[in-house]
Amino acid sequence: MPKSAQTVIREGATYTIAAANGRVLEVADFNTENGAQVRLWSYEGQPWQQWVFEEAADGEYRIRNRFTGKVLDLAMGGVINGTWVHQWQKTTGSSQRWLVLPASGGKVKLKNVLAGKVLDLAGMRMDNGAQAQIWQDVSGENQLWRLDPVPDKLLQRDTPAPAPRPAAPRSTRTQTGSKGTAKKSGGKGARRGKA
Q1: Mean pLDDT for all residues in the chain
Q2: E strand or H helix at 150
Q3: pLDDT at 12
Q4: So what's the pLDDT on residue 24?
Q5: In this structure, what are the phi and psi dihedrals at residue 74, rounded to the nearest 5 degrees?
Q6: Alpha-carbon distance 7 to 9, whole Å?
Q7: Domains in the chain, start-ordered, CATH in brackets?
Q8: Residue 186 gets which letter from DSSP?
Q9: What does the alpha-carbon distance between residue 133 and residue 38 come to, in Å, rounded to a whole number?
Q10: What are the distances in angstroms from CA 12 to CA 50, 54, 66?
């Protein structure tokens, strides 16, 4: 079995992919569709936060979400810095194949085979909702991951029905005009006609 830092990747085993602060990669809003966002979130022991490493070639893996059955993929097969990582049904494409590279402290880097870039978090954010993307290797903390095996007791329990999470608050105001005046773009005030 290939060894990566202090983590032995076992074929078909289930892992969490954790950032430095302990938050993990998940499929956003437990969405089962192709193209669903992959983001960082506090770990809740749910299957949409758990990943199965399936060998695709010697030392290369497809990383499949336990809940959706879809794999980590590059949006539109993009290879540039900032290309979003999303989920997609399994194909033979190299945009879905990842190398697990050892890093310091028992952590790993996940390098995409097609792009030659590593799994990264947009804006170097590590809060809930941070979007997964690829970026050139800059040895940042937002590019280091800990692969932790999911305990058998979590794999054997029934999956509860997903409960919607609260949406992030959205502003109803937009900035318009050259003098920086705010114009109401939503709500009751926006529906009023001119007097």
Answers
A1: 83
A2: none
A3: 77
A4: 98
A5: -95, 130
A6: 6
A7: 3-173 (2.80.10.50)
A8: S
A9: 9
A10: 12, 6, 10
Assessment of whether the complete model's pTM goes beyond 0.85: no
Q: Quick one: pLDDT band at residue 177, thresholds 50, 70, 90?
A: very low
CA 144 to chain centre: 13
Tokens representing 137? 């290797």
pLDDT in tens, 118-157: 999 999 999 999 999 999 999 889 999 999 999 888 888 6
Inter-residue contact 66 to 45 (CB < 8 Å): no
Task: Transcribe 44-108 into DSSP letters.
Answer: -S-GGG-EEEEEEETTEEEEEETTT--EEEEGGG--STTPBEEEE---S-GGG-EEEEE-GGG-E
Question: What's the maximum distance between 2 C-alpha atoms anywhere in the chain?
Answer: 74
Q: Provide the token pair at 98.
A: 């990842």
